[in-house]
Amino acid sequence: MRISFKLKLILSYFFLIFISLGFVAFFLDKNLEEKALQEIKTSLINESRLIESIISNNPAALNSPEYLDKISKDLGSRIKSRITILNITGKVLADSEVSLQQALNLESHLGRPEVAKALKGKIGEEIRYSSTLKIDMLYLAVPIKENGVNAGILRLALPLTSVQKVLFAVRKTIIIGLFFTLGLAFVLASVLAKTLIKPINRIIYISSKFSQGDFSRRIFQSSNDEIGLLAATLNKMAQDIEEKIREVATKNQHLEAIFNSMIEGVIVTDESSRVISINHAIESLFDAKGAAIEGKFFLEGIRNSEISELINNAMNSAKLISKEVTLIMPVQRVVQVNVSPIFQQDKVTGSVIVIHDITEIRRLETMRRDFVANVSHELKTPLTSIKGFVETLLEGAAEDRENRINFLKIINNHVDRLSNLINDLLELSHIESKEIELLKNRFDLSSLVDEVVMGNKSQARKKGVEIKSDLPQGLEILADSGKIEQVLVNLVNNAIKYNKDKGFVRIYSEQLADTIKIVVEDSGSGIPAKDIPRIFERFYRVDKARSRELGGTGLGLSIVKHIIELHSGSVGVESVEGLGSKFWFTIPNLI
Fold first, then answer.
1. pTM reported for the whole predicted model
2. Which are the contacts of 336, defined by CB distance < 8 A and separation ≥ 6?
3. Domain ranges of the chain
């Protein structure tokens, strides 16, 4: 059972006053009792001395029971006390409360303590219960002297009922006063406790708000006592904590912003390999949500045993481990995984996994190697042919006019091929540098397509390919007309080159939400599905031998892609092997 502080405070006051007043009442009662008895004793002593002097002045008194009986009854009624006169042997000679005959027949009082003491010449006193009168009695005995010698004993007995009545009245008054004082103390203690508890309750209420994280509250206490000091201290503490929390929250926001804006994926685990936190890069990399992963074991959230093994090895060895890993799910990627153990007091308590997606780097490295190999091959073939024909001419074939002319034509064709290759490389390099400035203007795209179609009519006629434009008249776009013409020429040339005899090339447009889509469709042999993702790469050819035979450099589609991307558009191809292809690009609308 919980006892409130208010009740404890009231009870403390109550018991403190109760104990204090109890001690005061106890000692007051004892003191009053002692003083009352002392005053009675003094009065009895004075009375006994007076009676003793009356008896001792009459030498024959002790030998006259009748005289003693008369004196005892007469004086006893006056002083309201029982008078008993004894001889030195303890025999009762007279008693104010009984007749003379009864008194003479009473037993010897020699054994009474007060009598024994009086026989020694002293004043004897004793308080004891009287079996005759059934009350407490105060007995006082003095010696009766004749000629300086003890001749008898005078004993006065006074009932203590009057004293007890006085003491009872006093005690009653004290008890009533005690209860009144306790009641008043209880009321005052309640008022005082309420006065003290009210600010304490206010402090408790505000402190509970502090514990709930609301540090904006303040305790208003105008007093300068300890409670006021406590309130001021709590207010200062709340202000400091609020500032610290705000500072920590700001830092956490900064850290979280940095954490989630990192390109690298970051995973934090505890010592049992449970995931504590991941950033957005990991969510994108593994196609998972943080809420679904955090709190689970690593392999439960991210099913990659190779990375899990790296984490275990790093924590067991307490060393940084780095390894390149190929991810299969959800998509194939190449990543660099760095696992670093977290230490706390020289003990490994978790790990930090940083994952760099190096797929694009590896792809670019592959493209670079392929590019170098392709350029080398594209340059080597015509140069080898040129060198061979030049050596042949030098060895004497120059004298043969007919062969010399043929050799020179072949050399010229290879030089043209090299020139086209170098020009395309320079063009592609210029476009990729992003330094090219587009000369955008508003022009009629349908008219430009008609010009490209007319320019390729002769080439199409040689293969029996029908070429036509289905673009609506007056279709206008905002673009660099020269670059768009270069795109159209490349696409149309390829459509004619790789078409089948008596095939067709069709150019048409589609109006999308915010772009115009231009499609160049052919009836050629189509492109295998495995080659479609790489068709716009430099020097990539589906049929390398046929491409070189047709005079292609392998850079046309790559140039097309970069020109369209400069216009904030996109390129693509839809093709089924054996059923032709649809090369398309998009240009943003004028609006």
1. 0.45
2. 322, 323, 324, 325, 355, 356, 358
3. 5-166, 215-261, 262-357, 362-432, 440-588
Give the DSSP H/E element, type plus range, for residue 366.
helix 359-394
Sheet holding 504-511, edge to edge: 466-469, 504-511, 515-522, 581-588, 571-575
In Å, what is the CA distance from 373 to each residue of 4, 238, 505, 538? 90, 70, 33, 11
CATH 3.30.450.20 is held by the domain 5-166: yes
Is the N-terminal amide bond of 330 cis, ω within 30° of 0?
Answer: yes
CATH of 362-432, one of 1.10.287.130, 1.10.3720.10, 1.20.1300.10, 1.20.120.450: 1.10.287.130
What pLDDT tens digit does each residue of the chain (591 aa) get?
566 666 777 777 777 777 877 777 778 777 777 787 777 788 888 888 888 888 777 777 777 888 888 888 888 888 888 888 888 888 888 888 888 888 788 888 888 888 888 888 888 888 887 766 677 788 889 888 877 778 888 888 888 776 677 777 777 887 887 788 778 877 877 777 777 777 777 877 787 877 777 777 777 766 777 777 877 888 888 888 888 888 888 888 887 777 777 888 888 888 888 888 888 888 888 887 877 788 888 888 888 888 888 888 888 888 899 888 888 877 788 889 899 998 888 888 889 989 888 888 887 777 677 666 666 666 666 777 777 767 777 776 666 666 777 777 777 777 777 776 676 666 666 666 566 677 888 888 889 888 888 888 888 888 888 999 899 888 888 888 888 888 888 888 888 888 888 889 999 988 888 889 999 999 888 888 888 887 877 666 665 544 444 445 567 788 788 888 888 889 999 988 888 899 999 988 764
Q: Which fold has domain 440-588?
A: Heat Shock Protein 90 (3.30.565)
Rounded CA-CA distance 279/301 in Å is: 14
For 250, the token pair is 């700001």
Fold match, 5-166 / 440-588 = no
Evaluated on CA atoms 203, 204, 206, 211, the torsion sign reads positive
